[in-house]
Design brief:
The structure is a homodimer of 331-residue chains. Chain A is an alpha/beta fold and 331 residues long. The first copy, chain A, contains 12 helices and 12 strands. The first copy, chain A, has helices at residues 6-13, 17-25, 32-44, 51-58, 75-89, 103-114, 130-138, 162-175, 191-206, 223-234, 248-261, 294-309; strands at residues 63-68, 93-98, 120-124, 143-146, 155-160, 181-185, 216-218, 242-245, 270-275, 288-291, 316-318, 321-323. The structure holds a DNA duplex (16 and 16 nucleotides).
Chain lengths: 331, 331
DNA sequence: CTGTTAGCGCGTTCAT
DNA sequence: ATGAACGCGCTAACAG
């Protein structure tokens, strides 16, 4: 692939390859004069060490693998930016694996990552099993998981407090006088979905309202799901007066459905999303939502990964925040 | 990093490493019986070939590097998805480099990519110079550029016809009776900005309207720029009746500014964006825009890259499309 | 059909 | 302060 290698530089400088290596890597045991001469020659020849040979010897790639579920959902880009910014400060590059909600792709990327191109992995994806993650970790690969509580001696995690999020959203709606609150939830198998549902139930219980599973649905977390579920819910005789969605993008689908059905938001229907992505303040009306600190999540994941690479394990929960805009109102 | 290597499998099976390699890679010259036995042992030992050793030998990484400017702008995720989907069909993984509009980061990623982790590069970023790209191409690295017309024997490109896009947007506004049309453009040095400006000028000329450079500004292509420029434009005595923006995200900024100033869209101000990202149909009012076929752009880039790796060079232009929604109306 | 040898491009001994 | 030899893990080329 690359043109000039270390041997050619060595030949040009009339020294051995190891001397070139020492010179260019700033290692001791070489005279300042030779170093300068070699550095100059290397630059002239436009020499850059071959990555493939380098990582094979050093056993370090200076790369981090970041697995995410859906790059089209703005939640993830913000997370990625947080991770990338922090990683690049330490000279690390982030290799992004986007899985488009496909379990097979998650497995493929994880397999790929585990074969050597990265020094550690951050997983922000829900399909892959804890067992699979633990297996990789036990092979010696440092792993940090995002938004998944995984207690294991070799794995760290950072997560939004999802139960708190579900609780905040539901409580907000209850306080506004709603009692029939639908929850258009995410994938059933996902831990995140389950924890938010716990928060939802907890709030209901505190308000003394019976839990009704007819108001809950589990979905692929994309806009269309929100749209379809909203149509279903709003066309029944006993339609809910408020809808809480698994994420903002799904809430956009709900808003769209309500508009098409001529149902006014927030007068006739209140909507609460989750994530607080950039576009949520631009919808009509602007979306009330539970904010996740996405950049912080990405940043902390990298920080915890670096610690893990040095043998220190540490995990943490980040509190979400209720952002009240204009899709919710008193019943 | 990885636990068990090919030698251990060989030892366990009582054969040589090369036999194991043949068995696992499906190469000929090995008895079916031995192959099955080795495959079984490899699976039992949970062996997966070490990527680092493998690429050093095969000279192929099965990776593509994809350089993008701003992952937070939904234009790019859609492009990435198109690229990824097509690449993964051929067993390739996409390594994403996000540069957050920083020239230094673009250079870093390009440097990294050129040192060996990928078999080819797709560049959808504007800061890096043609010279730099050509240098890398001449080192033997297959490169495809997106939205940049770069004629060079070793480089392919795929681009939206930007001049056409600028022309379509401006012509649409002219037909609606607008004559004072501001253009909140992208980065000045960017070829894309320049080509769209050409289209804008061409439409103006055809309508017999003089070009007024006061109506043109060059900006970092993020939402805030649209907001700030709109405030500036709309607070002057001679405010334009229509604004064309470099991308949809900037148009969102314009909409926000107009709302804050109490200016009604589209009655008092028409707005046309560029890209047609997913959220543009969710704004209030839904945005009129020039659609780029983003997934197609990503898909074609990979296809052209594969061709380039086999020595065939081919480039193409994709026609954009005017999507009329509700931010434009007759003057 | 299988084993041995060599080499990808580096960094790291261990000598000198 | 510098060079020679070795090895990272794998596959390709050559032998048998």
């Amino acid at each position: 692939m690359r043109r000039v290698n270390i041997q050619e530089v060595a030949k040009e400088a009339g020294v051995s390859p190891s001397t070139v290596s020492r010179a260019l890597n700033g290692f001791p045991g070489i005279s300042e004069k030779t170093r300068e001469r070699i550095v100059e020659i290397a630059r002239k020849l436009n020499y850059r060490p071959n990555y493939r040979g380098q990582i094979l010897t050093t056993q370090s790639t200076k790369n981090i693998g970041l697995l995410i579920t859906d790059i089209a959902n703005p939640f993830f880009p913000e997370l990625v930016m947080g991770a990338e910014e922090y990683a690049s400060k330490s000279g690390y590059t982030v290799l992004l694996g986007n899985t488009s909600e496909s379990e097979e792709k998650e497995t493929n990327y994880l397999d790929f990552f585990s074969r050597g191109p990265v020094d550690g992995i951050i997983i922000s994806a829900s399909r892959v099993s804890n067992e699979h993650i633990i297996m990789l970790a036990e092979e010696g690969l440092p792993i940090v998981v995002i938004n998944r509580i995984l207690e294991h001696p070799k794995i760290s995690y950072v997560s939004t407090d999802m139960e708190k999020g579900g609780y905040l959203a539901t409580m907000h709606l209850l306080r506004l006088g709603h009692s029939k609150i639908a929850f258009i939830n995410g994938p059933k198998h996902s831990e995140v979905s389950q924890r938010r549902l716990e928060g939802y139930k907890k709030a209901l219980k505190e308000a003394g309202i019976d839990y009704n599973s007819d108001l809950i649905s589990f979905n692929v977390p994309v806009s269309e799901s929100g749209y379809k579920e909203a149509i279903k819910l709003l066309c029944t005789g006993e339609a809910p007066t408020a809808i809480f969605t698994y994420n903002d993008v799904m809430a956009f689908g709900v808003i769209k459905a309500a508009k098409e059905l001529g149902i006014k938001i927030p007068e006739e229907l209140s909507v609460v999303g989750f994530d607080d992505i950039f576009f949520s303040s631009f919808t009509d009306p602007p979306l009330t939502t539970i904010k996740q600190f996405k950049e912080e999540l990405g940043r902390m994941a990298v920080e915890l990964l670096f610690k893990l690479m040095e043998g220190e394990r540490e995990s943490l929960l980040i509190e979400p925040e209720l952002i009240i805009r204009n899709t919710t109102s008193r019943r």
